[in-house]
Design a protein that fits this description.
The chain is an alpha+beta fold. It is 23% helix and 40% strand. The chain contains two helices and nine strands, in the order ααβββββββββ.
Length: 111
């Protein structure tokens, strides 16, 4: 399938595929009983515009890239607090602790 091949040719597609495989392995080997949470949100510029292509990182190691609408999501996180970083055009925004099962609106002040 050409569309699948083109998706996997991008770094974001490769990370999404790796995360899907990891989540499937966790469920298969008994991780489904562990409490899990989700953090999802949207990155915007504060003027109504969305930020597509920003790198969002949870706990310093789990990355995702915002889609064309600025949205991102992390599923199957452990329950509890997590730290979020957003990297875009050389700038970095860091959150304080964020509870899983939250919807976030990250607003980056554009220069």
């Amino acid at each position: 399938d050409n569309s699948a091949e083109s998706l996997l040719a991008t770094p974001a597609g490769q990370r999404a595929e790796a995360l899907a495989i990891f989540e499937a392995l966790v469920r298969y080997f008994g991780g489904q009983d562990a409490p899990s949470g989700e953090i999802a949100g949207r990155v915007s510029d504060g003027r109504g515009g969305v930020i597509a292509g920003a790198l969002v990182i949870v706990d310093g190691w789990l990355p995702a890239q915002t889609d064309l609408t600025g949205k991102f999501a992390f599923t199957s996180l452990s329950a509890g607090e997590h730290n979020i970083e957003v990297h875009y055009q050389g700038d970095c925004w860091k959150s304080g602790p964020v509870q899983s099962c939250r919807k976030l609106e990250v607003v980056l002040e554009m220069q």
